[in-house]
């Protein structure tokens, strides 16, 4: 069932993921994602986890701020998703970047933890 009442554990996961991204620490980001995590962006389409971690690890991509206001969520067995509106700032290849977008994160329970397996970004108009 889709709900606008975001379960606390999903809100915590989203906060942890945001904090990992603004840390620009590859190990922290990796700890929030599955091995097969995919980031779908309007600019590049599907980008595998290995590529994102490589670009962050090299310093080519940094995040200074990242916020997300979750508005919808669902939990079905070992799968969950959260959709909301997010903003972030940072740099790419030394140039400032900022985004205002709708974000959907899909999580999968792996053992006793939940990891993000898909992040889909859509620009807010």
UniProtKB/TrEMBL annotation:
Pfam families: DUF4440 (PF14534). InterPro entries: DUF4440, NTF2-like_dom_sf. SUPFAM superfamilies: NTF2-like (SSF54427). Residues 11-115 form the DUF4440 domain. This is Nuclear transport factor 2 family protein.
């Amino acid at each position: 069932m889709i709900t606008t009442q975001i379960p606390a554990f999903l809100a915590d996961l989203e906060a942890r993921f945001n904090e990992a991204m603004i840390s620009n620490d590859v190990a922290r980001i990796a700890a929030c994602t599955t091995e097969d995590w995919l980031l779908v962006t309007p600019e590049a389409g599907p980008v595998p986890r290995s590529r994102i971690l490589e670009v962050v690890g090299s310093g080519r991509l940094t995040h200074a701020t990242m916020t997300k206001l979750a508005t919808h969520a669902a939990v079905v067995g070992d799968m969950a998703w959260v959709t909301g509106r997010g903003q972030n700032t940072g740099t790419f290849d030394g140039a400032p970047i900022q985004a205002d977008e709708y974000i959907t994160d899909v999580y999968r329970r792996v053992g006793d933890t939940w990891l993000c397996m898909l992040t889909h970004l859509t620009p807010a108009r």
